[in-house]
Each structure stands twice: as C-alpha cells, then as structure tokens.
Records
---
Amino acid sequence: MSNDNPRVADHPIDPMFLARWSPRAFTGEAMPQATLFTILEAARWAPSSYNSQPWRFLYAVRDNAHWDKFLGLLNEFNQSWAKTGSALIFAVSETTMTVPGVDSKVPSYSHSFDAGAAWGYLALQASLLGWHAHGMVGIDMDRIRTELSVPEDCRIEAGIVIGKLGPKTLLPEALQARESPSPRKPLAEIAFEGGF
Ligand SMILES: Cc1cc2nc3c(=O)[nH]c(=O)nc-3n(C[C@H](O)[C@H](O)[C@H](O)COP(=O)(O)O)c2cc1C
C-alpha cells in the first residue's frame, strides 16, 4: 500500500480492498511474464453465468513487438500516462455462450458483468503482488476491433494498464493533484434494504 493511502473503511474489510487503487505514475519497468500470467490467472478464477467464462484478455508487455500498437489504441490522454506502464491489456467479453441442452450458442445476459468480476480479480491480484492495474474506457473501440481482429460476437469492455508505482513527479502538474487513492460513497447510498 502507498504510505499516504487515506482510505478508511466504514465496516471491517480485508486491507487488500483499500490498498488497490489506480495510479497513473508508473516506473516503466519490465514486467516478468510469470507475474503477468499470475495476474491473468487470478482473473481466470472469477465466477460467471453457467461458468461460461466469457472474458478474453489481449495483452502486450512493454518493449515487445505489440507494445506500440497497443499504446496507440488508447486515447491521447490515456497514452500520455499509460506509456510508462509495464503491460497493456484489452478486456473483451464473448456475448454468446453454450448452455446445457442447447446445441447452438445463446446470447449471454451477463457477459459484461462476468468480465467485470474477472477484471476485479485481476486488479486485486496485481495489487497483492505490489503492482497496480488501472482500467481505461478511453480507448479506440473501432480500431481495437479491426486491428486486433476482435470477433463480431465479442464486446470490447475496457483497457487495463499495469505498472509499478513511481513518484508523482513523473506526471504533469494537473495529474499530480489527482494522484491519490479516492474515497467512496457511503454504504447507505448504494445498498437498500428491501428495494429502492
Ligand atoms: C472500466 C473503467 C474505465 C476507466 N477508464 C479510465 C480512463 O479512461 N482513464 C483514466 O485515467 N482512468 C480510468 N478509470 C479509472 C477510474 O477513474 C478509477 O478506477 C476510479 O476513479 C476509482 O479510483 P480507484 O481505482 O483509484 O479506486 C477507469 C476505471 C474503470 C474500472
């Protein structure tokens, strides 16, 4: 956990939930493949409807042949800080699935929900290993689909950059001001006994 993490939970939870956050100042160091695979492995164990496991992860690690292409698929703002990340991932979900007793694939209601659970596991595993994962919706969906050959029955969910936390001073001033773990709405605003 960063030493200046101001987060306090209102109810007791494992500290790992407060330690995970989304910085933008990354050191740019190389990520060992074993680390990347451990992080992806955690995502693999997420629950999903009918155990359909609709998540797919397209990845590139820093300085390998795919890195520049992947970086170029982020919007300009996200490129400006994600360029010092160590791994870039696009999370995709399959919108159709196989269910028992039906021969052809059927639409999945929960493919995005399932892929979201997998992303959550991925981010927590990264954090447990001393890395940070930062989700990004500021990505070029159309170019990702064509340039990475994403099939038609897949939804492009989000980009993810993983890196090692570096000093704030790596960032332009405006971003330095935003570089700390954020608070949350109180439980009473998000959970309702018996209905809305
Ligand atoms: C699906 C998703 C998309 C996001 N898109 C972006 C983005 O395009 N650019 C960015 O700087 N941060 C992005 N974020 C980071 C969020 O702003 C951040 O997770 C949120 O403010 C909560 O902060 P925390 O992750 O540090 O707890 C995204 C996060 C998620 C989960």
Note: Residues 21-22, 78, 134-138, 158, 181-182 surround flavin mononucleotide (CB under 6 Å).
---
Amino acid sequence: MNEGIAWSALGLGVLGWTLPRAWRRLQLSRAKHRSLAGHARMAQRVARLIPGYAYDEDRFYAVDGAPDEVAARRRAAMRRLEALYDRRFARGAALTAQAREGLSDLQFTGHYRVPFQFSPVVRAHLRTSSFVARAWGVMLEDVDGNVFHDLTGSYGVNVLGVDAYKACMAEGLAEAAAVGPILGSYLPCVADNIARLKELSGLDEVSFHMSGTEAVMQAVRLARYHTGRRHLVRFTGAYHGWWEDVQPGPGNPLPPRDTYTLRDMDERSLQVLATRRDIACVLVNPLQALHPNRPAPGDSSLVDSSRSAGADRAAYAAWLKRLREVCSARGIVLIIDEIFVGFRIAKGGAQEYFGVQADMVTYGKTLGGGLPVGVVCGKRALMKRFRDERPADICFARGTFNAHPQVMAAMNAFLRRLDAPEVVALYAGLDARWNARAARFNAALRDAGVPVQVAHLSSIWTVLFTQPSRYNWMLQFYLRAHGLALSWVGSGRIVFSLNYGEADMDAVTAKFVAAAREMQADGWWWHDPQASDRTIRRSILLEMLRRKL
Ligand SMILES: Cc1ncc(COP(=O)(O)O)c(C=O)c1O
C-alpha cells in the first residue's frame, strides 16, 4: 500500500472512530439537565467558589429591603421566639450544646438548617434541642417534656407508626436472644424473610446488608460484574446514599468517575441508553416522581420561593415503562431503589405503585423493623457472585454484620405484620386517602390566607411557598414552637407515618395554620411588590461576587 493510501485509510479510520464518538458525547451532553444538579463537575467547582459570609443582626432582619417597621417586628418576634425556646427547650438545648462539641454530625446539621448567610444569627438566638425522651402513636416527647406531632418519619423508616417498630424490635431481640451476636450462621426466620421478599419484589434471590448505601453499592457492583460494563446512570437530583459513585458533585470530594447523571423523564436520556455500550445499570429513586430533576428540598437551600414539586403518577409510570423497555433491549440492569418509598407508597413499593418490574431492587429503612438494614433483591443471573467457568473471577461483597440475628428477627416481625388485618387496612385506598388529606390541608392554608401550600407523593409532603421571600426557612422554627417536629432538613420533607388518623391530621393542620399565621403576623413574609424569585437570586449572586472581589 503506498503512503498516500495508507494515510487516507488511517484518516478515514480516525474519522469513523471519532465521529460516532463525538456524536455520542454530544448526545450525552444533551441528555444532561441544564441545571447545576445535572452537571456534577461544574457544580462541584461552583460550590468551591461560593464565599463564606453571614449577615449581621441589622442586615438579617431587612436583607429583602423591608421597611424599618417590618424589620422591628421581625426582630421582636425573634426575641419572643428566643425566650420561648430558652424556656421550653432548656435541658435539650444544653445537652445539644454539650454533645455538639464532640459530635461532628450535630455541628453539620446545626449549621445547615437554614441558608448559610442567616445561620449564625439563627444559631445565636434559637437554641434547639436534638434530644428525645419518648415516642408513641404519632407523637414525640423531648427531654424537656414537650410533646410534638412527629412529621420526621425518622428519615422514612417510620411507615407503620412507632409502636409497630417498638413491637418488631422487642420481638426481634427476644427471638434472637438465645444466639446473641452469633454471626455467619442464620436464624431460622431468615428462610421466611427470603421467601417473603422474593414474593414482594417479584425477584429470585436476596442479599442482606447493613444500610441502604451498602445495598446500592452491592447492586451496582453486581450489575458491573455481570454486564462487564463500567458506567452507571442515575437521574438528576436523585439520592441513593452517600457512596462516591452515586453522589457525584457537591458533598463528595472526589471528581465524578463512572457515573452519567441524566435528565429524568426525558427522551434524550433514553437515546443515550439506547446507543451507548458502556452502561451497566440505571438507578431509579422513585421519590423523584415528586420533584423530577431536582435534589431533595432542604431548607438550607431555601433562599427564595422557587421550590417546586408535584407528582404525576401516570406520567412517571409511563416513563418507567419506557425505561424498562430500553433497558431490556440494551441489556442494561434496571435497579429500582425502593429504600425510601418501599412499603410506603404501596405494600409492593414503587414497583406496584407505578406498575414496573425491575431487574434488581434495593430496600432498607423500614424493612429492618426499626433496626438498620439494606437489602438487594435481584434476578438469579444478576445475583450470582462467582462464575463456574472462571472460578477466580468473583464479585466479592460481604459484611461482618450481614444477616445479623436481631435484625433478621425484627425484619421477620415487620414482614409478618404486613399481613395483619390492621396493616392491610392501612394500605387499602392509601393513595386516595393521602390525596384527600393533602387537598384538605391546602384548602385550610388557602382559607387562612398564608402563602404556603404542600405538594405530595402519598404520605411524603413538601412545603411550597407562593410568594417571593427570603425568610421561608423561618417557618420550621414556628412549626416547632407550635408542636410539630420536623427533621433537620426542615419544611422540604415532611414524612407522615401511615397510622396518622383523621383526628391527628386535623390537629396537625390546626397547628400548621396557627404557626404560618403567626409567622405572617410577625412580618417575615412582607415582600417588595417588585421582588421575584429571579431578583432575589440575582441579589444573592451580586452579594457573593462582592464578597469574592
Ligand atoms: C432512595 C435512597 N437510597 C439510598 C439511601 C441510603 O440509605 P442509608 O441512609 O440507609 O445508607 C437512602 C437514604 O435516605 C435513600 O433514600
């Protein structure tokens, strides 16, 4: 072959190789959500650029340009709340201050309850308590004897009501008492757990772990092992635990590795799945149906009123159906992460609720009957951790505490409870019941004339704000003062246990409305008629630039 022909052959080869490559890259970038949440690397860079600063007392009350009279009302309200908090939460606040010194987690949550600019003044005035003494029914009592309606749902663990878990834990401890901490062999109830989980998940095999994060790690590792591909796909904003590969971007010091973060409910993502050959699995967190392409709504990022949410069950079901089809056609493992919504939105979780069958499912939280757990259920061919034809090529994933006897026995108590008539009754008409409750709640808020509404996916609710404001995060402190307990992320995630009755809902509605009315009267929702969420965000950006320069 002469040199010219050799060069053009090489050129064509390179072109043939680079064009599809360039096309695939373009396709991939089109399938990224345009928000920062869709661009992990850039989000991480931006996060590093944000300067640390805080408002002083004067600016704190009038950062939105409120007139002096309104700022004075806010200041007086803060003093009143401060006195109330100091009186009510004296013991708990002292314990919290003491524990905070040595408990890194508490320092973190304490700092990030509200947007960082407001955090020091809030911490100086509103000394909260993180210590609890008792729980029963739908109530919590703190160490100072204050009683709250529990809207935390214990991060989603509490599905059936706290008394059910007390019983599961007690039964679990009793059943496993004779073996204590013996590990490696199994309690007889493990066989029953496997049978029940196979039936609930519609899958062939099960593996037990100690947390949801670990279950996700195991599912992804197995998908990689069996497909021989490296990349995993997750959808913008979805949380799957704190393991590096499923949490690229801010919060994770490492740069993103083998993860593609794609747009949820978008044709362009299906195109990527249909054409790339390096994708081992797709991870779906069905909680995203409530806020597709957005991260979990916490009050630390509640800088304006642009938080939005709203679940469309039929549209999300149709999306999962398309996703299922593409994954089947391309040999991509579809993993549905039921750790939050499993046993909550239906007995059979998102698979039942949205009518989709996954290749693998991860469970956790409530399934431990109150004890820590993570579970993977999967098709037989995907769960196998060794190859008969290459015995040294194994997929190792073990854990000292896997199938811990007390956890297995508490899980068994939980799974058996699902068949009890009172629990079967909880699941009957579940969606309609929670839709009606959210509608009544919203009507009460509208009637009260407060700028607040809720969006929901069954018993998981998010508070939305209907007019521009920089102070929406103050609501969590009024809610606490009115006897409603939220988790540290505040108004973004209210999680009801399914044992809430109508009278409990009425009581929560009354407390919520009273809290919002008081906040309104205290002037926090005053707003400049010219202000919008966009002008608020622009002013914060300018503020940051000024600090930077
Ligand atoms: C959908 C989902 N996946 C995984 C996890 C991680 O579970 P864990 O906190 O038990 O590690 C969570 C926790 O909130 C979750 O909601």
Note: DSSP finds 20 helices and 14 strands in the chain.
